[in-house]
Amino acid sequence: MKLIAKIVSIVFYPMFIPCYAIVLMGIDWIHRANATFMTTFPLLVFTFFLTLLLPLLTCLWLVHRGRVSDMMMENAAERRVPYITSLIYMFTWSLMLHTIWQLPDAVWQCAMAATAALAGVAIINRKWKISIHLASFGSFLGSCFTYCYSFGLLHFWLFLTLFGIALLLMSARLLLNAHTPLQVVCGFLLGLTLTMIPALWL
After folding, report:
1. Cα 142 from Cα 131, distance rounded (Å)
2. What rounded mean pLDDT belongs to the chain?
3. What is this structure's pTM?
4. Is the distance from CB of 22 to CB of 50 less than 8 angstroms?
5. Which residues contact 106 (CB under 8 A, 6 or more apart)?
6. Rounded to the nearest 5 degrees, what angle is found at the Cα of 95, between the Cα atoms of 94 and 96?
7. What does the pLDDT look like over 102-133, one tens digit per residue?
8. Rounded CA separation 140/64 (Å)
9. Each residue of 41-86: pLDDT tens digit?
10. Which of 28-32, 99-103, 154-158, 161-165 has the lowest mean pLDDT?
11. Which 3-state string (H, E, C) describes the chain?
């Protein structure tokens, strides 16, 4: 069971979530904008580079330098520098989604809200450990809701599936003794709530 929990934690590692979100929303956006995959491929590469590759390389460098023990960074004190650098990357990515790629408001506003959720996790973790895995996935689910709401879409099975995955991820983090039940629930609600806020004015 612990092996499955580790696999789930890796598959839904926080750095992967923005790529999942852009791919999922990008499929619908390509259809709506009558665009082709090749015209939006640079966006996918850009997202991969800023939200996954750069943070990953930063963390690997920190592990190499002995600043953090491993990529999971179970010790909250080790997350300070990765949080700061990831916030810079995420904010840059969110801003450029609006200014360069000119994506729908729902997309870049959710990206900004997800960045705010990451900042919230970073602040909270100075005093109390909260799950960044669940904060990231909560942001993903909230972003999907806001995107669908902004276009009048209703994908019941999508939300049910994502909520089921959230419960699976919560169970995985608890099974690995990475967090307490309160820490995973609070992380999930933080990400979910912040990314649903844009739906209030869309």
Report:
1. 16
2. 89
3. 0.92
4. no
5. 146, 147, 149, 150, 151, 198, 199, 202
6. 95
7. 888 888 999 999 999 999 999 999 889 899 99
8. 30
9. 888 899 999 999 999 999 899 988 888 887 767 676 778 889 999 9
10. 28-32
11. CHHHHHHHHHHCCHHHHHHHHHHHHHHHHHHHCCCCHHHHHHHHHHHHHHHHHHHHHHHHHHHHHCCCCCCCCCCHHHHHHHHHHHHHHHHHHHHHHHHCCCCCHHHHHHHHHHHHHHHHHHHHCCCCCCCHHHHHHHHHHHHHHHHHHHCCCCCHHHHHHHHHHHHHHHHHHHHCCCCCHHHHHHHHHHHHHHHHHHHHCC
The first and second tokens of residue 78, run together, are 């080790």
- For residue 77 the two structure tokens come to 């004190």
Residue 117 tokens read as 């959720």
